[in-house]
Design the sequence.
């Protein structure tokens, strides 16, 4: 990976279960990772609202990508919901203008694929915390590296 | 800078602000009461017209906000009400003083005011000049509402006049207008050219906007909308952005009042579509007055400002302050409804306009408060519209508005934000801001941290974080909510509770933290938190009772059900010998049969269900009972569980307290809890009590998901005594090779055992000592023997006892002892080979001599000896013991339990190894020379290793060496037994012949007394003859013949075996006399005299036709012979050749019992030696 590519990456990636508890959350090394917990947690409000609204208005195939959930001063929070109501949330820095919607979509697609691969493991019980190393590798690939 | 009003809504734009202030000595409660009464008058419909307007009451309004009154008219304090209470006239003065002061304070904007004084007699009614209103008391103030209405009306008319004045100013283009200013604009005004066109426009636009505000306040929404629109057009061209924004906001507010007549604080009602119908329909509904209709119609159809001006002019003339009853009001009322379709904004437009307004506001740093309030108002509208996402976008911006605020204000701001988020359903966001507010309460900069309110706010966040403090509602089996954040909140609550000085609360939260969140804690965290909890509880112990907070909330107790985790709970039955038993009464059995169905699957399923919680055994009161638990310590340190015991309901139960120490991360470990039921009845166990880390917990089974049943109940029966049993014999050592299932089961339940090793025929006593070790006298004792566990059946008479002596000692007092003796008689097995060989030999002999000559018997014995397999081959292994096991069941009872029919059973295992001593291998019964006796010959085989001395009657002692086989003959007196009656045992499976055989062998055993003695060991015993197989022939031999014979040959009495000499060709007369000696009549018998020739080589010739001639009958039938009766038969034989002949004289009789005929043979055998004449001489 090149240095230029690194700057395009997320600062926090979270996988949230159908029942809205975290299955996996990975943040860039920081002293206050609870901050990201709060950010992701509150973003669920928007996710829920978006899912509910879609359900009301159209019966078409739902767009999995939810787009920007909300911007904060420093970060932008993007959401993605699978058909099984597993939520992916990616937090990127607001200053990171290189990241456009398309890149975010690619990121989510990669994440979804990794999740699908992980769920295919017969030893994984849906609803358990994700401990798969392969999955972690994929997520780490999306994260902003300090180096 | 003014202070933001976080409660504002868009409707407030149309309400006249009235401040209500207390004065004098009035307590808060009374004031609030009066305030509530005043505020009931919110919506005022004017008495003489159809106009109506709204009032808004506030208890305080900062004067700083008043200066914004020009910018937005609803911010002005227009009315003032002072509520005072006084006792004396001096008080009145004070109140009046304050009233005047307040009037002065708000003076610049005040339209009207009143001073309401309670507690004074009305001096001279309402003083119109001073605006003082007097009431004698709070209760006696019925006219208060009237006063307020009147005050409102007065306000309205002032407002109305101001509105008209402003409208006139705004519409009059010629006049020079004053420039209305927002408070911070004053300094900008310096040096501005007031003569420019732009400035004029600005003045005009602002005035137009102001009259819009007043119209809105006065209830003329439609006019307000038009004013706002016009002003917006003017202001836009004048680049007056701030006021443009205000005009937009005004438009929105007016539209809101139209769109949502029920307000934005409540969810919207479904809109009635009929109101927005065509003008024609609505015009038809108009009441009267062509003028009115024309005015309203023109309004509805025209949107242009030119037309509007005309209409407004018309309005000005037609609406004098006194207001005509059929003029404007009607039109306005219609207007409010029909206008929806026209000038007012649609719900979406409202939001768009608000957004625009807010963008404009945000350009002015000084208008931050206005912007803030605008956001709040817009959000409230969107809540009504259920545009949650858009609302969240608005709220998102609210955080960024930079206002210099006090801490208190910040808290309020976050709190409001949280409340708004809550309303749009963003409970997580709401919780987040609640928490921020809570943290603000105790920010490090705050010199007086408000821990209480911080705690209170934190408590409100719990819902948003899916956290509940009730452990019963908090699911532990799956993750619920966001553990990392929940942990943080709980930590904060613990800390806050401690800072609040409420250690009990801190303990409660900490135990909840440990209890509910332990799955999400790292081991080191668990360890640390446990230590913290212990340090807390060292001061204030954790209690199992609900904790009431000052706020009124109740914190349920937190039972530490996972410290340790109880995996299973089981009640244990008492030890087998302590179990209470009850004889199944006939009532009980009938009760179980009260269903007409023999089997019903429904019933059985119900029973199965029941079985889970109800024990199928009973406990005894006063007896220590056991409960088995399996516990797991999930903690990474040694867990000390103190005072662990069970919780019970129902009868008195005394649990025994136990202290456990569980190693780190261990389990499941088995733990036994003890307890003693004190009374009889139904005992229900509902949970257990622990004391862990200083927290006392009451863990109920119904809250434990790993325990299936919510409670366990067991019946406790009244007290019963306890006996300790010891035997004089050594305890039995059971080998592991024993595969007897019954015995294994008995072993587990037996209290003691006794073992003996006896030679067959030997006997021994076993003394049982019973000691009453309980406090209850034993009142009944009974003993029974259960031999079912022994694989070969235990012969009857093996164990015998006499209980009478023991029973005489009853009742057995506590501590007393009683003994009784069991006599063990070892009975050996009868060698069965004999029977087999006997059966073998039978056909051969029968074949050779179907007539059964008397000579066959000794011969057949010989053949038997030859055909039977050698004795040694079948010999059992030497000294091989035959085990005999039996369970002696000692049933006893006493005390109250006895009265209720309960008893206890102690079982004692008796184990006897029976060694073979002397084997009776062959038994034969031979006829004795005397007809009254017969001989019993026995082959006795000494299978012991010792020499055995046999002693039997009529003989000297006989010594049988080890392994030696010796035959002894015993003379036995013949006996006769009555034939077993057939009706006696109709269902007996034993055939009558077998029964008879048994009967005879038993009798024989009693008659023959053969004793043995082992000189080497000194043991002695008897030879058991019971069970000797008896063939029917043997029985005929042994039983006394019912027929007495008297045989005379040539008139000579024949009673020896001496052969009778006879000559060839000479007749020989035979006279047979038969007498019935028995007590019964013999029926249908046949007497036969049959000659035969004995060749002395083992064969007899029965066919002697050519050798013997018979004169007379050889056979004679006798119909019936009464007892004592006799009859004679005689015949004569002539022998034609020499040789040894014999006569077989026998009587046969059809037996009633046996299928075979009875045969009685005359003994001794008649032998005849026939000689030739020639040979006779030598």
Sequence:
């Amino acid at each position: 990976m090149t240095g230029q590519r690194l700057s395009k990456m997320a600062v926090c990636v979270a996988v949230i279960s159908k029942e809205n508890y975290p299955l996996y959350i990975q943040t860039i090394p920081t002293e206050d990772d609870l901050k990201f917990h709060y950010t992701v947690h509150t973003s669920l409000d928007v996710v829920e609202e978006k899912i509910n609204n879609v359900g009301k208005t159209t019966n078409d195939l739902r767009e999995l990508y939810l787009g920007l959930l909300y911007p904060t001063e420093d970060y932008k929070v993007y959401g993605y919901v699978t058909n099984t109501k597993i939520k992916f949330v990616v937090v990127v820095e607001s200053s990171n203008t290189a990241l456009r919607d398309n890149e975010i979509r690619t990121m989510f697609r990669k994440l979804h694929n990794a999740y699908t691969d992980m769920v295919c493991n017969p030893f994984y019980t849906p609803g358990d915390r994700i401990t798969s190393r392969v999955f972690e590798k994929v997520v780490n690939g999306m994260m902003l590296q300090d180096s | 800078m003014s202070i933001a009003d976080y409660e504002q809504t868009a409707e407030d734009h149309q309400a006249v602000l009235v401040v209500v202030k207390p004065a004098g000595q009035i307590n808060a409660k009374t004031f609030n009461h009066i305030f509530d009464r005043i505020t009931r008058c919110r919506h005022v419909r004017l008495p003489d017209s159809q106009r109506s307007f709204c009032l808004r009451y506030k208890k305080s309004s900062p004067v700083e906000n008043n200066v914004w009154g020009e910018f937005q008219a609803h911010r002005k304090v227009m009315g003032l009400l002072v509520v005072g209470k006084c006792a004396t006239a001096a008080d009145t003065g004070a109140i009046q003083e304050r009233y005047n002061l307040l009037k002065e304070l708000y003076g610049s904007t005040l339209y009207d005011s009143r001073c309401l004084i309670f507690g004074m007699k009305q001096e001279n009614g309402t003083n119109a000049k001073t605006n003082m209103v007097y009431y004698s008391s709070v209760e006696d103030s019925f006219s208060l509402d009237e006063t307020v209405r009147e005050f409102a009306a007065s306000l309205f008319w002032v407002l109305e006049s101001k509105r008209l004045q402003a409208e006139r100013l705004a519409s009059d283009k010629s006049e020079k207008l004053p420039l209305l200013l927002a408070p911070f604009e004053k300094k900008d005004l310096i040096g501005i050219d007031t003569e420019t066109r732009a400035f004029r426009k600005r003045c005009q636009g602002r005035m137009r906007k102001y009259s819009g505000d007043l119209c809105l306040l006065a209830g003329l929404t439609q006019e307000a909308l038009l004013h706002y629109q016009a002003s917006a057009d003017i202001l836009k061209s004048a680049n007056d952005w701030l006021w443009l924004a205000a005009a937009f906001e005004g438009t929105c507010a007016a539209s809101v009042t139209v769109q949502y007549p029920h307000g934005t604080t409540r969810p919207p009602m479904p809109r009635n579509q009929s109101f927005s119908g065509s003008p024609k329909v609505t015009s038809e509904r108009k009441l009267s007055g062509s003028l009115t209709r024309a005015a309203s119609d023109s309004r509805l159809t025209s949107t242009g400002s030119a037309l509007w001006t005309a209409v407004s002019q018309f309005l000005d003339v037609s609406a004098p302050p006194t207001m005509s009853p059929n003029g404007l009001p009607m039109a306005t009322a219609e207007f409010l409804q029909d206008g929806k379709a026209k000038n007012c904004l649609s719900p979406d437009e409202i939001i768009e306009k608000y957004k625009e307004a807010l963008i404009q506001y945000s350009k002015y740093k000084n208008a931050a408060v206005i912007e803030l309030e605008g956001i709040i108002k817009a959000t409230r509208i969107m809540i009504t519209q259920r545009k949650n996402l858009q609302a969240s976008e608005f709220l998102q911006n609210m955080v960024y508005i930079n206002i210099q605020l006090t801490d208190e204000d910040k808290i309020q701001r976050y709190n409001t934000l949280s409340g708004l988020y809550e309303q749009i359903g963003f409970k997580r966001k709401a919780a987040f801001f609640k928490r921020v507010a809570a943290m603000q309460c105790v920010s490090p900069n705050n010199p007086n941290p408000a821990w209480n309110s911080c705690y209170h706010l934190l408590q409100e966040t719990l819902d948003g974080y899916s956290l509940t403090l009730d452990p019963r509602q908090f699911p532990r089996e799956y993750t619920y909510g966001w553990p990392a954040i929940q942990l943080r909140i709980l930590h904060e609550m613990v800390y806050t509770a401690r800072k609040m000085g409420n250690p009990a609360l801190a303990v409660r939260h900490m135990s909840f933290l440990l209890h509910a969140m332990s799955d999400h804690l790292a081991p080191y965290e668990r360890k640390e938190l446990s230590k913290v909890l212990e340090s807390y509880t060292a001061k204030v112990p954790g209690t199992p009772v609900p904790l009431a907070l000052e706020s009124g909330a109740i914190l349920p107790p937190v039972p530490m059900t996972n410290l340790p985790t109880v995996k299973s709970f089981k009640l244990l039955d008492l030890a087998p010998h302590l179990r209470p038993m009850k004889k199944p009464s006939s009532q009980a059995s009938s009760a179980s049969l009260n269903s007409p169905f023999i089997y019903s699957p429904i019933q059985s399923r119900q029973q199965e269900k029941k079985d889970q919680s109800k024990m199928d055994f009973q406990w005894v009161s006063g007896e220590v009972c056991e409960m088995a638990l399996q516990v797991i310590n999930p903690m990474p340190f040694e867990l000390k569980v103190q005072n662990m015991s069970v919780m019970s309901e129902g009868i008195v139960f005394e649990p025994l307290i136990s202290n456990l120490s569980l190693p780190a991360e261990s389990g499941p470990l088995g733990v036994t809890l003890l307890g003693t039921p004190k009374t009889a009845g139904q005992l229900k166990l509902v949970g257990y009590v622990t004391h862990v880390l200083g927290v006392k917990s009451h863990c109920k089974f119904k809250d434990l998901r790993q325990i299936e049943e919510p409670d366990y109940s067991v019946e406790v029966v009244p007290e019963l005594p306890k006996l300790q049993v010891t035997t004089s014999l050594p305890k039995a050592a059971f080998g592991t090779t024993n595969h007897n299932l019954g015995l294994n089961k008995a072993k587990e339940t037996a209290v003691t055992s006794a073992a003996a090793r006896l030679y067959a025929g030997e006997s021994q006593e076993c003394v049982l000592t019973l000691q009453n070790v309980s406090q209850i006298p034993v009142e009944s004792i009974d003993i029974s023997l259960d031999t079912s566990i022994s694989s070969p059946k235990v012969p009857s008479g093996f164990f015998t006892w006499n209980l009478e002596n023991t029973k005489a000692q009853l009742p057995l007092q506590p501590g007393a002892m009683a003994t009784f003796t069991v006599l063990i008689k070892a009975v050996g097995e009868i060698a069965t080979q004999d029977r087999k060989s006997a059966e073998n030999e039978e056909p051969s002999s029968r074949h050779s001599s179907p007539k059964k000559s008397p000579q066959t018997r000794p011969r057949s014995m010989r053949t038997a000896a030859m055909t039977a397999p050698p004795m040694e081959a079948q010999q059992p292994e030497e000294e091989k013991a035959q085990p005999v096991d039996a369970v002696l069941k000692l049933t006893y009872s006493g005390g109250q339990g006895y009265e209720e029919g309960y008893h206890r059973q102690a079982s004692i295992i008796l184990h006897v190894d029976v060694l073979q001593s002397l084997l009776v291998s062959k038994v034969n019964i031979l006829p004795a020379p005397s007809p009254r006796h017969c001989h019993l010959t026995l082959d006795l085989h000494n299978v012991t290793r010792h020499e055995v001395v046999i002693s039997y009657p009529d003989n000297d002692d006989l010594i049988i060496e080890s392994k030696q086989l010796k035959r002894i003959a015993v003379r036995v007196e013949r006996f006769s037994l009555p034939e077993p009656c057939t009706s006696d045992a109709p269902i007996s499976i034993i055939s009558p012949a077998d029964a008879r055989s048994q009967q005879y062998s038993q009798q024989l055993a009693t008659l023959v007394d053969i004793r043995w003695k082992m000189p080497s060991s000194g043991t002695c015993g008897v030879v058991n003859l019971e069970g000797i197989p008896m063939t029917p022939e043997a029985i005929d031999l042994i039983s006394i013949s019912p027929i007495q014979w008297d045989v005379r040959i040539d008139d000579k009495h024949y009673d020896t075996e001496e052969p009778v000499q006879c000559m060839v060709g000479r007749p020989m007369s035979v006279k047979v006399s038969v007498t019935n000696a028995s007590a019964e009549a013999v029926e249908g018998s046949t007497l036969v005299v049959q000659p035969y020739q004995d060749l002395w080589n083992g064969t007899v010739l029965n066919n002697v036709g050519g050798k013997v001639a018979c004169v007379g009958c050889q056979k004679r039938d006798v119909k019936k012979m009464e007892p004592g009766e006799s009859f004679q038969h005689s015949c004569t034989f002539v022998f034609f050749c020499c040789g040894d002949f014999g006569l077989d004289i026998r009587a046969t009789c059809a037996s009633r019992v046996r299928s075979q005929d009875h045969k009685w043979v005359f003994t001794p055998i008649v032998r005849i030696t026939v000689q030739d004449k020639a040979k006779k001489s030598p």
